[in-house]
Amino acid sequence: METVPKPSRDVPPKKNRLQAKKKKPRRYWEEETSLTAAGASPGPPGNKKRNRELRHQRPKNTNIPKKSRFSRKPQLPKKPRELRNPEPQRSLSGAQDPFPGPAPIPVEVAQKFCRIDKSKKLPHSKSKTRSQLEVAEAEEQEISIKAARSELLLAEEPGFLEGEDGEDTAKIRQVDIVEAVDIASAAKHFDLNLRQFGPYRLNYSRTGRHLAFGGRRGHVATLDWVTKKLMCEINVMEAVRDIRFLHSEALFAVAQNRWLHIYDNQGIELHCIRRCDRVTRLEFLPFHFLLATASETGFLTYLDVSVGKIVAALNARAGRLDVMTKNPYNAVIHLGHSNGTVSLWSPAMKEPLAKILCHRGGVRAVAVDSTGTYMATSGLDHQLKIFDLRGTFQPLSARTLPQGAGHLVFSQRGLLAAGMGDVVNIWAGQGKASLPSLEQPYLTHRLSGHVHGLHFCPFEDVLGVGHTGGITSMLVPGAAEPNFDGLESNPYRSQKQRQEWEVKALLEKVPAELICLDPRALAEVDVISLEQEKKERIERLGYDPEAKAPFQPKPKQKGRSSTASLVKRKRKVMDEEHRDKVRQSLEQQPQKQEKKAKPTRARPSALDRFLR
Q1: Into how many domains does the chain fold?
Q2: What is the mean pLDDT of each run of 10 residues along the chain (612 residues)?
Q3: Which of 228, 424, 453, 455 stands the most exposed, by the fewest C-beta atoms within 10 Å?
Q4: Is residue 600, in this structure, part of any structural domain at all?
Q5: What residues make up the domain containing 225?
Q6: Where are the WD repeats (predicted)?
Q7: 436 occurs within a structural domain
Q8: If 0-12 CB within 10 Å is exposed, 13-18 middle and 19+ buried, where does residue 480 land?
């Protein structure tokens, strides 16, 4: 049997069921309206429409449930989004964040990562181009702020060496430094006694994990110098003049007595480049995949190792070339000559980009810091000079050395090391990209043989020295960058990561034609070449394809396309274009100079008409 539900308080009576169905449901905002209507003063008797609206807003049913899910408080009107006070952020526990929003970044820290010079105003260009430049600036500013914020994650800090009050740090020996540092750092100092195959030239890989060295009597070896694991060791049975790692530790080049040879990390000879003969010095440009060689015949040769072709062979016309280094900032090769000059070369030019007269005698060594700001040179006149490469090429400081420096090298943080006989001196500045002070050496170390090669290890406070007695690894606090980019130079990468990095680096290879003194000039428009190409194109085609087509009025109906009206419309457009040209020419003209004041005279002269 069906049972009839008992009527409750919320259910209306049976007789009012039709009224309840027809009744408009209550909304949560109607209560405010009813209160407002109840407390409002009655309007004039003639305003029937308003009274009708107020009566319609009154609730007919007084049976209100006890529990309502809506608040009975009148709802205030929402404020505009600009005037609302943002509510403080709260955590899951309900606690209020005392520092809401992202942490502020100092302007100086963000400026360090900014690559756009905002001192230069945007050029007057089209609105679309200008908006694109503004978007690029906004993205660059956001990226610099993110980079400055992520700098907190770089936990490592550069090392330093401080003496006690009045103590000279140059008197601190390597033995004292090894005893003071931890076990892992102390293991980085070692000596390899290889006197029977010396003197040695050495080179570290870009990641700073592997070391390659070659002796004058044919001994060539590569090893993981951190774990002391030998990768390969061969004897080429020929004099070795220089050795360099290529883009990775899997390949290295050896300048032997006759030709240039390429080996892999197992010691297997892969290539013999006979076009590069009698090579004395090697330099590798990692972003261009170019191997630069200097020979006894006076030729500077660029070899593209990605395709195995000679990009350029330049004759320096300065005799034997045995002093060479690269500028890490712009990939320009610096050559030292016997007449005391240093020439700057690019594979895109057959003549040197610049020549600098550095010494009265021949140049013995050249080195450029990592920022491309300073160049250090030493000559037969026993002078050690530091030059400014930012366009002036003027000497900033000089020092006379007792024996003269035969080898120079800069570290990642701007320390300058010089090899003088069997002594290595190191000078330090105030920090990275600062001028090294040549007044007092930072460290000094005496070796068991004459120095023949210097190279700072990347991302490690280590200086590798090749001499007649073998290889020495020195500890130099504060020489290298403490943090490395894991996507670019990761010393802990696996073989798979190295292969993926090689593919990415090949895709991002920079063409050799883009090597120049100022890399920022590549982002500017070459107006002269653009105009020349435009003139040649006009002469070849016989007309200007970019010229504006003459105005042709559209035909109209109802007799408005008569000859007179067409001529009138054409002339009107021509007059508007003429006005625009005149207005532009007036804006481009410089401000007129003030007229010279006429000399005051008692009486006017007939010659005054010639005064302007």
Answers
A1: 1
A2: 50 50 59 46 46 46 45 46 52 73 81 73 69 85 85 78 83 92 93 92 95 96 94 95 95 96 95 95 96 96 95 93 95 96 95 94 95 94 93 90 92 94 91 83 93 95 95 93 87 92 94 92 81 88 77 76 82 84 80 53 69 60
A3: 228
A4: no
A5: 169-501
A6: 356-390
A7: yes
A8: buried
